[in-house]
Automatic annotation (TrEMBL):
Top-rank taxon: Bacteria
Cofactor list: Mg(2+)
GO CC annotations on file: cytoplasm
Keywords in alphabetical order: Cytoplasm, Magnesium, Metal-binding, Methyltransferase, Pantothenate biosynthesis, Transferase
Protein function: Catalyzes the reversible reaction in which hydroxymethyl group from 5,10-methylenetetrahydrofolate is transferred onto alpha-ketoisovalerate to form ketopantoate.
Catalytic reaction equation(s): (6R)-5,10-methylene-5,6,7,8-tetrahydrofolate + 3-methyl-2-oxobutanoate + H2O = 2-dehydropantoate + (6S)-5,6,7,8-tetrahydrofolate
Pathway(s) this gene product operates in, as recorded in its UniProt entry: Cofactor biosynthesis; (R)-pantothenate biosynthesis; (R)-pantoate from 3-methyl-2-oxobutanoate: step 1/2
Name the UniProt record assigns to this protein: 3-methyl-2-oxobutanoate hydroxymethyltransferase
Length: 273
């Protein structure tokens, strides 16, 4: 079979093999133009269900649908050729049964061409992770703070300070690794616990609010780019300040439109001489 025309994306297996090599670089991406800019610099791009809050102004990720994830997965695939692209399974598309999870994940893989899916959950999702991975679907796990469970866990806060919390995250991480995930996100978890889990599991841990002790890092790209002025959690660093730049550009545009200085002659079509 010819491989001409096939992209040489980083595979989930290659991400898994990076454990112990160098830190894994990962960001979220939701649209083609941003994915195009991030792709050369990232090992993994996640089409996260955070898009519900970041792009659609939702209060939580609970309202995100499978169709939304597929549309944005397709957009990101169109803009990338290097990074491993993983698409989140949204709330309600996989928790009911392993069969439901397979149907949702298969739809995502078939309709987007992405490299795998991410799902949130620990011990309770281990059977599902094993079911998917043994049937050809690479799974990226997600333990620690799980935003899809915000309605039962009571909000967004860092975890692992009490023995009970730490023990749960520890057991969740081990279960997801043993079930066959190729890597896992650890979100909002105190540093010593993230360090301990990273040493204990065979697969890479990708931290968000879980310290540099993890095998890699992920941030929501819009956070990292400084596109939100009003909210900056402790674990976010702005590597650019795009929000004030966008505001200033909009202000300058409005002034020029009102003054009729835009469009100028060079932006205007004239009859041929
Ligand atoms: O949905 C998302 O963007 C995520 C990352 C923050 C890990 O799950």
């Amino acid at each position: 079979m010819s491989t001409v025309g096939h992209t040489k994306r980083i595979t989930p297996a290659a991400i898994e093999a990076m454990k112990g090599q160098r830190p894994i670089v990962s960001l979220t991406a939701y649209t083609t133009p941003i994915a195009r800019l991030l792709d050369p610099h990232c090992d993994l791009l996640l089409v996260g269900d955070s898009l519900g809050m970041v792009l659609y102004g939702m209060d939580t990720t609970v309202g995100v649908t499978l169709d939304m994830m597929i549309a944005h997965g397709q957009a990101v695939i169109r803009g990338t050729k290097h990074a491993c692209v993983i698409v989140d399974l949204p709330f309600g598309s996989y928790q009911e049964s392993k069969e439901q999870a397979f149907r949702s994940a298969a739809r995502i893989l078939k309709e987007t061409g992405c490299d795998g899916v991410k799902l949130e959950g620990g011990e309770e999702m281990a059977e599902t992770v094993a079911f998917l991975t043994s049937r050809g679907i690479p799974v990226f796990g997600h333990v620690g703070l799980m935003p899809q469970q915000v309605n039962t866990t009571g909000g967004y806060r860092s975890l692992g300070r009490s023995d009970k919390e730490a023990d749960k995250i520890r057991r969740d991480a081990k279960a997801i690794s043993a079930a066959g995930a190729f890597a896992m996100v650890i979100e909002g978890t105190i540093e010593p616990l993230a360090r301990e889990i990273t040493a204990a599991v065979a697969i890479p841990t990708i931290g968000i609010g879980a310290s540099a002790a993890c095998d890699g890092q992920i941030l929501v790209s819009d956070d990292m780019l400084g596109l939100f002025n009003d909210f900056k959690p402790r674990f976010v660093k702005h590597f650019a300040e795009l929000a004030p730049m966008v505001s200033k550009a909009a202000e300058a545009y409005a002034e020029e439109v009102k003054a009729r200085t835009f469009p100028a002659l060079e932006h205007t079509f004239q009859p041929k001489k």
